[in-house]
Model the fold of this input.
Amino acid sequence: MENKTIYILAIESSCDDTSAAVLCNDKVLSNIVATQQIHKEYGGVVPELASRAHQQNIVPVVHQALAKANIDKKELSAIAFTRGPGLMGSLLVGTSFAKSLSLGLQIPLIEVNHMQAHLLAHFIKDDLSTKPTFPFIGLTISGGHTQIVLIKNYFKMEILGQTLDDAVGEAFDKSAKILGLPYPGGPLIDKYAKDGNPKKFSFPIPKVGELDFSFSGLKTSILYFIQREVQKDADFVSKNLSDICASIQYTIVKILMLKLNNAVKKTGIKQIAIGGGVSANSGIRKALKNREHSHNWETYIPKFEYCTDNAAMIGIVGYLKYKEELFSKQNITAKARYHI
Ligand code: KG4
Ligand code: ZN
Done:
């Protein structure tokens, strides 16, 4: 099996992005993502609307992925899909589609854990980057996840710490909402923070386990702070937007770096690989780069298109599992809660 060319069609539908990708071995031939715009109006993902949008998007997205890869469905070796974790209604669309297609084409079906996929996205073949070696520490930071994971090999991972409440992306988005910025506000906080003073306002660092996270207290303290200041000056937010954003970002990055530091101390491992949409944040990227020089860390950040939710990362896990013949049965079910 080692020398055979393997074509994987991968499907991701765990939250609000409908995505399909085609991989030739560990190389991405296409990676199509339809981001659902409807949720913007509601300031967050509405599960019922997400499921409906997946149903509308899935066939065109798969067609586009095959067309862009210039692969006929008859050439496919297997179908990989996100089994969980995620929104049940959303997962059901991708799971049912993948099962039907594998049955129709009579090729293997491969289930993939979305969180493992965020971490294994680092193994997508990309001529520009070097890959981490086992064992390494993974940090997944997005609108739905915040986890520190010890990655022992492709399929053996251990969660060292995680959020007890909000995910870090939610902390960015909810803070942005308090400031009157549209959803998702994370990239806007990053943008305004560039011109601000990160030490102008200070927010508390939550006291939780040394490898765990908590962001709900931070959100509340930002809310109370803004309410207090707006009472004194109705234009406080607009007058201080850059400094507020810089201070919020500074606090969040400080929390992430503190926890990574603890993980490095605990494991003695200095290879850090990050994933998830918040990996785009310029503050976290800069802080990681600084640690390379100051603490001899080796840090890995995949291309942005492989950081946010995408099917290419599901495809790389599909490929790795295909080589081990880790196939799924047709009676497999989606899992909204699915631990790595
Ligand atoms: O991985 P992702 O696309 O979807 C999931 O949540 O699974 O991540 C989206 C999250 C949102 O919370 C968004 O605000 C945040 O990533 N985000 C950022 C930045 N770009 C995206 N947060 C801070 N700074 C950014 N530059
Ligand atoms: Zn994700």
Remarks:
- The CA atoms of residues 44 and 228 lie 26 Å apart.
- The mean pLDDT is 95.
